[in-house]
Amino acid sequence: MKVEELVFFPTQLVHVETIRFNAEKKLEKAGMKYRIKAETRGEVVDEKMGKSYIKICVENNGYYFEEEKVGVFQFSEKITDEKSAVQFMEVQGVRILWSYIREDLYTISSKMLPHPIMIPTIDVMKTLEKAK
Q1: What pTM was estimated for this model as a whole?
Q2: Which residue from 64, 67, 61, 59 is spatially nearest to 114, judged by alpha carbons?
Q3: Cα–Cα dist 39/131, whole Å
Q4: What angle do CA 113, 115, 117 make, to 5 degrees?
Q5: What angle (nearest 5°) sits at the alpha carbon of residue 86, between those of residues 38 and 53?
Q6: Which of 23, 76, 91, 97 is 20 to 30 A from 69, comparing alpha carbons?
Q7: 46 - beta bridge partners?
Q8: Across the chain, how many H-helices and E-strands are there?
Q9: Residue among 94, 95, 97, 55 at smallest CA distance from 72
């Protein structure tokens, strides 16, 4: 596919920041399996700006990793429906910020473990359909 013209989305991610990271070795438990949990939330900051938060916790072979990031979104139009804007930012927290955390966890765990943790890519739409 040849792209002649880029069409920009009306809402842009303008800043990403890690607001919390924890990595620690816990007592190893026999048969401990790989476990991953994630949550996201959105918030309207003002009439043209919102924030998306994502938190991911991973347990693997006696190690525990937890990271939380925030993404700041700039809307091109004034936010008129706060509920829809919050839902948009919750969805984008999974869709966009997941890859930022994925890279962080891999890089940091590569310094701690013989086999770094690479959390899987996800099917965002199916994940959101199953979300609480």
Answers
A1: 0.86
A2: 61
A3: 9
A4: 85
A5: 35
A6: 76
A7: 49
A8: 3, 4
A9: 97
